[in-house]
Amino acid sequence: MAFFKKKQPQIQEPMDLDAVMKKYDQESNVRIWEGKAQIAVNAVLAIFSLFCIYVTLFATWLEELRLTTFVAFIVFMGYLVFPARKGHQRINYIPWYDVILMVCGSGAFLYFAFNARSIIQQGSIFEWYQIVIGIVGILSLMEVCRRSVGLPILIVASAFLVYALGWGLSNPSLWGKLNYSVRYLFYGKEGILSTPINVCSKFIVVFIIFGAFLERTGIADFFIKISNSIVGGFSGGPAKVAVVASALEGTVSGSSVANTVGSGSVTIPLMKKTGYKPEFAAAAEAAASTGGQIMPPIMGAAAFLMADYVGVPYSNIVVRAILPAVLYFAGVFITVHLEAKKEGLRGLTREELPRLKPLLKQLYLLIPLALLIYLVGTSQKSIQYAAALAIVAAIVVSMFNKETRMTPKRLFEALAAGGKGMITVAAACGVAGIIAGTLTMTGLANIMINGIVTLAGNHVIIALFLTMLCCIVLGMGVPTTANYCIMAATCAPILVRMGVPQLAAHFFVFYFGIVADLTPPVALAAYAGAAIAQANPMKTAFTATKLAIGAFIVPYVFALNPAMLFINTSGVGEVVLICITSIVGIFAVSASLEGWLLHHMPVWQRIVCLAGGLALIYPGIVTDLVGVGLVGAVAAVQFITRKQQLQ
C-alpha cells in the first residue's frame, strides 16, 4: 500500500525501477488498461472514492449495509485491477474466470447488503445457500488479498482456518464447523466486518485519497530537494538526505517498499557516488523508509486502528508516538554520519545542491499537512472531516504551480489513484479480520497467551522477547495496517496479561511487526534497496537491521517504563529530561555499534558506550546518572587520545 508514489528527477538508474517495484511490491502488479478501457476502469475507481467520501462524511447507513457495500466494491475492483499472477499481461484483457470471480465475490457481499436487516433478525439459523454465499465471499476476498498483498498473510489466515475446521471447534461434523465459521466470520461482527475493515472504511480511506491528491502537488520531490539543500552538503550528505526525506515522507506514506524505491532511486546512486558501500547505501535507505511507518501522524494508517483498539483519541496516539519515532530516525542519522566520518566521505558540492531560497517559496506545499495536523491535534473537527478539508487544501495549493495545477483530468486521476490504493489496504484489513475472528472463535488466542505467559513465568523481559519473535515472524511480508491488526489480536494481549500498560503493549507489537520489512529472511524493503544499489540482498538486510537498532531497543524501554510514551510522567520537566537523555543514549548506542566516536573505538570502549547508552535511554534518575558517567568517560578518553593523535 502506498498513499503516494514519489516522483523524482530523471537520472540514469542501474536497473528498471518498475521491475524492482513489481518484484518486491505486490501492489505494483496490475492489469494493463489503455484507451477507453482505462477510462472506464478509472471511472469505477473514481466513483468508489467519491462513494467513500460521501459515506464517511454524510451517510447514516446501517453498519452492516455500509461495510458489506464497501467490501463488495473492494472485491469487484480487486479482480478488475489485479491479475491472477505476475508477469506479462495482455492489454485490455480480463479472463473469463476472473469475471466470474468478480461477479460472484462482489455479489456475495451485495447479497448481505441488500438483506442486512433480515439476516440480523434471523439469529443463528441460516439456510444452506446462505452458508455457500458466505464461503464464496470469504474465498473471493482472500483471493483478492493474495493478488494485491501477497502470500504471507494468506498463509497465516489459511493455517488458522484449517485449525478451526480441523481441531479448533467442538462441533463433530465438518458442515457444522463450516456453518458456525461462516456465520461468525462472514455474517458476524467478529470476522471480516470487525474493527480493521470498520476503521478502514471510516478513516483510512479518506487519508488514502488525501495522499493521492497530495502526490499531485509535487510534495515528494519537494521533500527530496529540501532535504538535499539542508543536509546534502555535510559529510556523507546523500545518506542523511535519505534519512531526512524518508522521515518527512513517512508522515503521510504507508509502504516501506514504495518509500525505498521512490526516494532510493535518487539517494542510493548518490550515496554510492560519494563513497558508501552498496550494501550500506541500500540499507540506509531501507532503514529510513521503513521508519516512515512509525512516523506520526499517519503511521502507515495504524494510528487510526490503534486508537480504536486501545480506546483513546487519535491525537493521543500521535503525540505518544513522536519521541520513539524521533529516536529511531536519530539512530539511523547518527549511524550514517559516523560511517561517513569513519570512511572519510564527503558531501555533495555546492553546484550539486539545490538552492534553498527557491525551495522556501514552495513551503506552501506543506499547508495541507499542517492543516490536517492542526485540525486533528486540536480535535476541532472529526478525523474524516479534517482529512476532507486537507484534500481541498491540496487542490488549492496545486493551483500555485502550472505543472501541478489540478485540472479536471488530474482530479479524475487523483480520485482513481485513491480508489486503487484502497484495494490493498481494505483486502488486507478484511483478511486480518478473518485471522482475528478465527483466533477468538476457536479460543486459540487464549491458548497462545497462556502458553507464553506460562513460559515466561513472572519475567516480563522473557515475555517481551518471545512476543518480539512472534511479531517478527507474523509480520513478514504483511502490509502495515494488516500487520498491526494481526499483532493487536495475537501478541498485544500477552503483554497486557504480563502487566505492560495497554498502549505500551500495542506500540511494542506494532514496532516489531514493522521491522519484519528489514529483518531476514523476508526483508522486502532491504531487498528492494539492494536491487537498486546492485548489492548483496542478505548483507543489505543485516546492515539495515543494525541501522534500525532503535526499533529493537526503544520498544523494550517503553514497555518496561512507559514514561517514554509520556505515560505517568510528573510534568514538562521530566518529559524534556527523557527526550534529552534518550537522544544522547541513542547516539551512544549508534557509536558503539559503528565503532567510531571521535576516532576508532576499541572493544572495551564500545561495550562501555553501549551500556551507558542503554542506561540513558531507559528513563530514570539512577540510570541517567550511570549512563552519563559511562558515556562521559568514553567521550573523555576519545577526546584525549584524539588530541594526542593530532599533536
Q: Give the fraction of residues assigned to helices.
A: over 70%
Query: Which stretches of 5+ consecutive residues score pLDDT under 50?
Result: 1-14
Order of helices and strands: HHHHHHHHHHHHHHHHHHHHHHHHHHHHHH
Question: Helix- and strand-based class?
Answer: mainly alpha
Gyration radius, rounded: 25 Å
**What is the total tally of β strands?**
0
Largest sheet: none
The shape is globular
Number of helices: 30
Strand content bin? under 5%
Keywords:
647 residues, mainly alpha, disordered N terminus
Write a structural description.
The protein is an all-alpha fold and 647 residues long. The radius of gyration is 25 Å and the shape is globular. It has 30 helices and no strands. Among the domains are: 20-202, no CATH class; 569-647, no CATH class. It has helices spanning 17-24, 35-57, 63-81, 96-114, 116-121, 128-148, 151-168, 174-187, 195-215, 219-231, 237-249, 256-273, 278-291, 302-310, 314-343, 356-360, 367-378, 383-398, 408-442, 444-456, 460-474, 480-490, 492-497, 502-514, 524-533, 537-547, 549-560, 572-594, 603-617, 621-646.
